[in-house]
Write a structure and sequence with these properties.
This protein is mostly helical. The protein has 6 helices and no strands. The chain has a domain of 59 residues. 58% of the residues lie in helices and 0% in strands. The radius of gyration is 17 Å and the shape is elongated.
Length: 98
């Protein structure tokens, strides 16, 4: 196993470092099509928001907990984790908690 020593790790949770707009839009369009909903309406409310908040706004008639799980599980093919980095983070619970 390769050891990595560093002072900090930068996480891009809001798409500032890597533009994830295309992936986010594609995924919401697919989800909208599966539910017979207007994807443009969803996209107008989705950017910069948590999945559950978007769902509350655009699909409050659905089981939100269930749909959030479905959305997250179906997003996996689009999001490829950086395995070495992920292993490094989870290998040291003390640094992970900082």
């Amino acid at each position: 196993m390769q050891e990595i020593s560093c002072q900090a790790i930068v996480f891009d949770l809001d798409g500032v470092l890597v533009d994830s707009t295309v992936i986010v839009e594609r995924h919401w369009r697919m989800w909208a099509a599966q539910h017979g909903l207007d994807s443009e309406f969803i996209l107008a409310h989705a950017h910069g928001r948590r999945t559950i908040d978007t769902l509350r706004t655009v699909a409050s008639h659905l089981n939100l907990d269930l749909e959030q799980g479905v959305y997250r599980r179906s997003a996996c093919p689009f999001h490829k984790p950086l395995s070495p980095l992920r292993r490094c983070i989870w290998a040291n619970p003390i640094q992970r908690a900082i």
